[in-house]
Design brief:
428 residues, alpha/beta, FAD/NAD(P)-binding domain, 5-stranded parallel sheet, globular, CHP04046_FMN-dependent, FAD/NAD-bd_sf, flavin adenine dinucleotide binding, monooxygenase activity
């Protein structure tokens, strides 16, 4: 397909109708900018379709703020469940009417010349082409679930699913469960299974942990007050290495609490280091369990110490400081596991996602397939992103930072459209 004089032209196209893309739409609508939001399913569908039944936010409810809409419920320091988040987002969508085209997928985006883009769309009505001046990609940071290559060589009798497919323990066959990954999803799913009485085996990586509450307040409230969620990525302590780390594991379940893997081990959960390989019923691990637990606890205590310094520097009246002391230590670091002998009938892969921008034909990506951007704006004129982790600050990609990021992208788009229209008028 190629564009013709009859090809529909829309000034701005937003690809993805999650909260990030819709936030840009909110601002463009207020500015009177004609645009459309292309969504492969339905707005904010991921919250209802890709979270387990007992999912809760790990950030306090007061973090939840979108353009023209903030959490005003009875529990600002609590943690909304999956269904409460869906209800809250539905309430936001009732406040405006974004121009969304549902059940439509963008299969190709290219820039045939210096003045705009062509998008190939696919829906039940078939394939079509539209053109635009500006494109905002709001498809999420990393949409493709990661499954290790050796997964296909494991015993086919063992059920394997990715964390985004997990909803509750009842969906799994009877028997023990191996969860691979100790990020926020992996540890919370392991806890969900553990609380349901399942025998859980957990292979952990290098994810850090954080206290849920410390010295009278939620840790994330302290960190917000300290400005960590507002610090630009270029100025953040630890630089690029800090931005690549897995988020700290913690939970908002039952009002919020620490996730303490050592305590889980005391209660019968089996812990292992990093899983590296497997075949048939045999899995192999790095001897990293002891070091991983110690490192996670060191980060936990380091964050507490940072909060202590903030309290002291500002003469804040707060309960006395404390530190985490290990309640359990492994006797050894296991290096192998026989799935059959351990009675493991299911594996849940919670090792993350990877980017997939193969449908975008533009020189805007690094060697790892990640967008090269500054506050969401790329060097490709007219191409920008929204909703990426660390797009501008640690708050980017979270409810707390979406409004600010969306406003910046919308301002950039409006400014660019104004300049292009001025150039066009001058040429005429």
């Amino acid at each position: 397909m190629s564009a013709t004089a009859h090809t529909p032209h829309i000034p701005v196209v937003i690809v993805g109708a999650g909260q990030a893309g819709l936030s840009v739409s909110w601002y463009l609508g207020r500015a009177g900018i004609e645009h459309v939001v292309i969504e492969s399913k339905t707005p904010t569908h991921a919250w209802a379709d890709s979270r387990w039944d007992n999912f809760t936010l790990v950030t306090p409810n007061w973090h939840c703020r979108l353009p023209g809409y903030v959490y005003e419920g009875p529990d600002p320091d609590g943690f909304m469940t999956r269904d409460e988040v869906v209800e809250w987002l539905d309430g936001w969508l009732d406040t405006f009417t974004p121009p969304v085209r549902e059940h439509t997928t963008v299969t190709r985006l290219r820039r045939p010349n210096d003045t705009g883009f062509e998008l190939t769309l696919n829906s039940d009505a078939g394939e079509e082409l539209i053109t635009c001046d500006q494109v905002v990609i709001a498809t999420g940071g990393y949409p493709l679930p990661v499954i290790p290559p050796f997964a296909s060589s494991l015993n086919p009798a063992v059920t394997q699913i990715h964390s985004e497919e997990y909803f509750n323990p009842e969906q799994l066959p009877d028997g023990a469960v191996l969860v691979v990954g100790s990020g926020q999803s992996g540890t919370q799913i392991a806890e969900d299974l553990h609380l349901a009485g399942r025998q859980v085996h957990l292979a952990i990586g290098n994810a850090p942990r954080v206290a849920r509450f410390y010295r009278g307040r939620d840790c994330m409230t302290w960190l917000a007050e300290m400005g960590l969620y507002d610090t630009p990525a270029q100025q953040y302590p630890g630089g690029k290495a800090a931005q690549e780390k897995t988020n700290h594991y913690v939970t908002g379940r039952d009002g919020g609490r620490d996730v303490d893997l050592r305590q889980f081990a005391r209660e019968g959960m089996r812990l292992y280091g990093t899983l590296t390989d497997g075949k048939d019923a045999t899995l192999r691990f790095v001897e990293s369990l002891t070091a991983a637990l110690d490192k996670a606890d060191a980060v936990y205590n380091s964050i507490c110490a940072d909060i202590d310094r903030h309290i002291e520097a500002n003469a804040i009246d707060a309960p006395p400081p404390s530190r985490y002391d290990p309640v359990w230590r492994p006797d050894s670091d296991p290096t192998d596991l026989d799935l059959a002998a351990a009675g493991i009938t299911s594996i849940i892969w919670a090792i993350g996602f990877r980017p997939d921008y193969r449908w975008i034909e533009a020189s805007a990506f690094d060697g790892g397939g990640r967008p090269m951007q500054t506050r969401g704006v790329t060097q490709v004129p007219g191409l920008s992103f929204i909703g990426l982790p660390w797009m501008h600050t640690w708050g980017s990609g979270r409810f707390l930072g979406i409004d600010r990021d969306a406003r910046h992208i919308a301002d950039t788009v409006v400014d660019a459209l104004g300049e292009s229209r001025l150039r066009l008028a001058a040429a005429q």
